[in-house]
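Example 230, ligand S-adenosylmethionine.
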Amino acid sequence: MLSHRSNEKEILDLGPGNYTAEEFTHCQKMLYRINKILGFFHGTVNVLKKGGEKAHVMDVGCGAGLFILNLSRYFPKMTFHGIDISSEAIDMANHEKSVFASDTSNVKFEKMAEPNLTFGENSVDVILATMVCHHMSNEEIIEFFKQALHTTKDKVIINDLHRNIIAYGFYRLFSPILFRNRLITYDGLISIKRGFIRQELITLLEQAGMKHYQVKWCFPFRWRVIIWKK
Ligand SMILES: C[S@@+](CC[C@H](N)C(=O)[O-])C[C@H]1O[C@@H](n2cnc3c(N)ncnc32)[C@H](O)[C@@H]1O
């Protein structure tokens, strides 16, 4: 069942006609909570701590922006630029920024005109993509790796899911009780089915021509991939 990456679409990818505004808002808030539970958030804090204090970080597929709004608390001297193909997500991110409890003058959000990264070479220090690559086809991921490496001066940090039957079973059992959100449960199961095993990530990195990278499995059932410029 999980032997290959699924190409089933998530409800969120089908667009606003397929869910209510309340479901969307609640789902985005839960996503940040899930990022914390899975360790994506603190794992990213630890990687950023090793880089420049004033780094310019671009979060591709930033969703409702809670990931970088919270990162900005840890790194007030960095600048954060969240981009997403969804205007709904960027609208919510701008709202979250306006009501965020601490200073957010170093955070901005922007709707992408197209799924490609059309920024200049070496125009940011770090590119971040959390729970985004599993939304893409293998061909799109290869193109994304190339474009991200072109855009960054230093590194690309990719956080995503391990496609694993135990993770799938646990999530199927517990997510309806824990999160009580149709999108989180239904899309979450598809996300795991669209996730990766180690060799697939390595193959995609190699096909994209990446030379300096690390693929690290982290508890529980997640991957952290770092691609360095050199
Ligand atoms: C599961 S959400 C993750 C949001 C956020 N990174 C987080 O971890 O909470 C995936 C986001 O990626 C966006 N997305 C999907 N494909 C994308 C692409 N090719 N370029 C930019 N954003 C994309 C979606 O619109 C959605 O907001």
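Summary: Residues 82 and 109 are 5 Å apart (CA to CA).
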